[in-house]
Amino acid sequence: MTNETDIVQPVADKHNVILRFFAHLFSVLFHPLFIPFYVVAFLINYHPSYFSGLGFYTKFELLRSTVFNTILFPAFALLVMKGLGFVKSIMLHSQQDRIGPYLANMIFYFWMARVLFNYKPELTPILASFMTGVFITTALALIANIFYKISMHAIGCGGMLGIFIIIMNSNSMLMTWPLSLALLITGIVCTSRLIVSDHTQKEIYMGLVVGLVCQFGAAIVIL
Question: Residue 108 and residue 145: Cα distance in Å, rounded?
Answer without folding.
Answer: 19
